[in-house]
């Protein structure tokens, strides 16, 4: 019995030491906005105050556009995910994009509230701050869910919808990005606030691309750096915790706005079956499926995907 107790004690000590070594090896402290802005917020980036929250935003293209295009990124992404689209769209349209609370350089919501209704209110507060009365609203993944929920809550403000591999229906993912798994795993999601292996970020990005060969070192730099923005790691954990039981998908059938649904056939996070649900439920929806692309088709192949947006607009 004494030998067994010594053996168990030894194993516990070994696990603790190995865990401590892992934490020490992957230790990544928070980075300040000032530290990150030099690389990730050059012009035309700006920071505007929205109810006390400093919001990282880009507002490009002609100011006389009667219905600007507003683009919302997904979980753990940032406004940069739309770079390829904006390069094309801003030649003739006003395009507004910003980092949602909990992500990018905007950072955590000051109230710690990451419910969907709070995100909808935030989008409207940004539009009111910019004095934009109505607009075309697009979004990817989480941003897509926020987009259609905003259209449902404020139909008089949203002229058209663009949903890119959008959330909003219950689904079973075929594959979870590693960072998402860690963020929802007790204890690990606490440790994550102090550690972040770059390899975990790379694995997560590779998981959402249909063709991982398109992933560049700079792309990994961006996701990695902005994940380290002070407060973002804790915010990711809280967002997952606060949005597990929030199914409002019945509202989709009430949306009257013309809606373009874009989807990557190789999306293993939100499967293509959800795209067909949107197509069936939307009164004025049209689906375009892109063969070979993954969960972020606008980022993976901006030229092909934005061509469909131009046709729609």
Structure, explained:
- The protein has a single domain (33-312), classed as 3-Layer(aba) Sandwich (Rossmann fold).
- It is built from 13 helices and eight strands.
- The protein has helices at 2-25, 33-40, 83-89, 116-129, 142-153, 178-183, 188-191, 198-208, 217-227, 232-242, 272-281, 297-300, 302-312; strands at 46-50, 53-60, 69-72, 95-98, 135-141, 158-166, 259-264, 285-290.
- Strands 1-2-4-3-5-6-7-8 form an eight-stranded mixed sheet, with helices on both faces.
- It is globular and about 50 Å long.
Q: How helix-rich are the residues, as a percent range?
A: 40-55%
Distance between the termini: 75 Å
Quaternary organisation? single chain
In CATH terms, what is the architecture?
Answer: 3-Layer(aba) Sandwich
Rg result: 20 Å
- The number of helical runs is 13
Mean pLDDT: 90
Strand content: 15-25%
Q: What structural class do the secondary elements suggest?
A: alpha/beta
- At the third CATH level, what is the topology name? Rossmann fold
Query: CATH superfamily, please?
Result: Alpha/Beta hydrolase fold, catalytic domain
Q: Order of strands in the sheet with the most strands? A: 1-2-4-3-5-6-7-8
List the uncertain runs.
2-7, 9-25
Number of strands: 8
Query: Which class in CATH terms?
Result: Alpha Beta
Please give the largest β-sheet: 8 strands, mixed
The gross shape turns out to be: globular
Order of helices and strands: HHEEEHEHEHEHHHHHEHEHH
For the record, the count of structural domains works out to: 1
């Amino acid at each position: 019995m004494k030998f067994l107790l010594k053996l168990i004690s030894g194993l516990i000590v070994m696990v603790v030491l190995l865990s401590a070594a892992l934490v020490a090896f992957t230790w990544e402290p928070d980075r300040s906005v000032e530290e990150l802005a030099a690389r990730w917020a050059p012009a035309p980036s700006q920071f505007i105050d929205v109810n006390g929250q400093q919001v990282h935003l880009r507002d490009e293209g002609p100011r006389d556009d009667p219905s600007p295009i507003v683009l919302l990124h997904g979980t753990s992404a940032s406004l940069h995910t739309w770079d390829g689209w904006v390069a094309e769209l801003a030649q003739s349209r006003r395009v507004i994009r910003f980092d949602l609370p909990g992500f990018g350089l905007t950072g955590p919501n000051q109230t710690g509230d990451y419910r969907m209704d709070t995100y909808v209110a935030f989008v409207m507060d940004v539009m009111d701050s910019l004095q934009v009365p109505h607009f075309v609203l697009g979004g990817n993944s989480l941003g897509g869910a926020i987009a259609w929920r905003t259209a449902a809550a404020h139909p008089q403000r949203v002229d058209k919808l663009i949903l890119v591999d959008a959330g909003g229906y219950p689904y079973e993912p075929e594959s979870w990005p590693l960072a998402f798994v860690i963020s929802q795993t007790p204890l690990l999601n606490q440790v994550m606030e102090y550690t972040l292996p770059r390899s975990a970020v790379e694995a997560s990005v590779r998981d959402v691309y249909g063709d991982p060969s398109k992933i560049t070192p700079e792309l990994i730099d961006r996701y990695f750096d902005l994940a380290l923005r002070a407060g973002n790691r804790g915010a990711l954990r809280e967002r997952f915790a606060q949005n597990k039981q929030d199914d409002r998908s019945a509202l989709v059938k009430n949306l009257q706005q013309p809606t373009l649904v874009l989807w990557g056939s190789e999306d293993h996070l939100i499967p293509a079956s959800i795209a067909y649900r949107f197509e069936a439920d939307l009164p004025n929806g049209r689906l375009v499926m892109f063969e070979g692309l993954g969960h972020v088709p606008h980022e993976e192949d901006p030229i092909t995907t934005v061509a469909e947006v131009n046709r729609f607009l």
